[in-house]
Specification:
The model has no long low-confidence stretch (mean pLDDT 86). The chain has 3 helices and 10 strands. By secondary structure, the protein is α/β, with parallel strands linked by helices.
């Protein structure tokens, strides 16, 4: 996979350190919630981030998953979010934290936030691993951000291109000739 990557934006060690810090921020924000937390990861991109994050959270939690697709096939342009799997789990009167891999256009995240709000959680916050500040809608609230990055198409650490590269341990930019 290294041969397919033009450059690495974030190395594995940087990612691990930031996830630990982010987990501490989240834990501090939810410390007063005795019933714990319901985490709603947006699959499949957030799965690696989710696994590392929850291992660092010292609190009771439930997981209620949802799966959407915004980049079909080998597309590098976001389309309208398509629900592949409805929200699995009850979030009514629970403190909910949505976990997503990347915030760029905001379509997927906005869709999931609205879906959860309709189910009447006690509170709703959002954590994203990556955010593209130049592209993210300014009105879309995100409470916890791992890293802000340039507006580049990236892979690794759960993010894919054509369902490949999710297991790449860094965040990298693919070589231009590999993308359409």
């Amino acid at each position: 996979m290294d041969d397919d990557v033009a450059r690495i934006l974030l190395h594995r060690e940087q990612i691990q350190a930031r996830v630990r810090t982010l987990a501490a921020e989240i834990a501090a924000g939810y410390a007063h919630h005795e019933r714990g937390l319901t985490i709603v990861p947006i699959l499949a991109g957030s799965i690696i981030f989710l696994a590392d994050l929850i291992r660092e959270l010292p609190m009771k939690m439930k997981i209620a998953v949802v799966q959407l697709s915004t980049y079909p096939g080998r597309s590098v342009t976001a389309g309208e979010p398509r629900i592949l799997m409805e929200l699995a789990g009850d979030v009514r009167d629970r403190h909910v934290l949505i976990v997503d891999d990347i915030l760029d256009t905001g379509r997927t995240l906005r869709h999931v936030q609205e879906m959860i709000r309709r189910r009447e959680p006690a509170s709703l916050q959002t954590a994203v691993f990556l955010r593209k500040p130049g592209k993210a809608p300014p009105d879309l609230r995100v409470d916890f951000v791992g890293f802000d990055i340039e507006d580049l198409f990236v892979v690794g650490y759960g993010l894919d291109f054509g369902d490949l590269y999710r297991n790449y341990p860094h965040i990298g930019v693919l070589r231009a000739e590999l993308m359409p």
